[in-house]
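hey can u check if this looks right to u? its 132 residues, i copy pasted from the old doc so theres a chance i mangled smth
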Amino acid sequence: MNVKRFRPILEILIISVLAYSVHKLIFYFNQSNPEYTNFLYSLETLYLFFSGFSVVIVLVLIHIKSKNIDNVGYSFLFATCFKMIISYVVLLPILTSKLQNNGVEKINFFIVFALFLAIETVVTIRLLNNKQ
C-alpha cells in the first residue's frame, strides 16, 4: 500500500481535528449564551458527518485518478452535488424549526459545510496538478 497515495486522507483528518478543536473552544467560551445551546445537531455530529463525507469523496477521487485522471474533475463535481443534496436534507429540520434563536445553528452548519468543501476542493486541485 502506497502511503503517499493516501496522504490527503490523513491531511483531512488532521485539519478536521484542528478545526473541531477551535470550533469547540469557541462554543466553550460562549456556553452561557443561550443561542449556543439546544442545537438540533451537535458539533460532533456535524464534524463526523462532513469529515466522513470528505474522506469518502477523496477516496473515490484517488481511485478514479489511478484509473483515468481525466475523469477526476467530473467526479468531484458529481460528488459535491450529491453531498450538497444530502446536506440540504440534513439541514431541512433546522430550516423548518420553530425555535426563535436558530440563526446561530444555521451559521454553524454553513461554516462546517464550507470548511469541508474548501478542504475537498484544495485536495482535488492538488490531485489534478500532481500528474504522475
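The CA atoms of residues 29 and 100 lie 22 Å apart.
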